[in-house]
Amino acid sequence: MSQQYSSLVWRRFRRNKMAIASLWLLGLLVMVTVFAPFFSPNDPTKRDSNAIYAAPAKLHFFDSENNFSVIPFVYGQKESLDPVTFLPVIEEDTSEKISLTFFTKGWQYTWLGLSFESHLMGLEDGRPFFLIGADSLGRDLLARCFFGSRITLIFAATVVFVVMVVGTLVGMFSGYYGGRFDYATQRIAELALAFPAVPLYLALIAVMPKTADSFTMFIMLILILSSLQWAFVARQVRAQALSLRALDYVKAAQSVGAKDMRIVIKHILPNVTSNVIVLATIMLPGIVLTESFFSFLAVGVKAPMFSWGSLLNAAGQFQTIGSYPWLLSPVLFILITVLGFNALGDGLRDAADPYSN
Question: Is the pLDDT of residue 320 over 80?
Answer without folding.
Answer: no
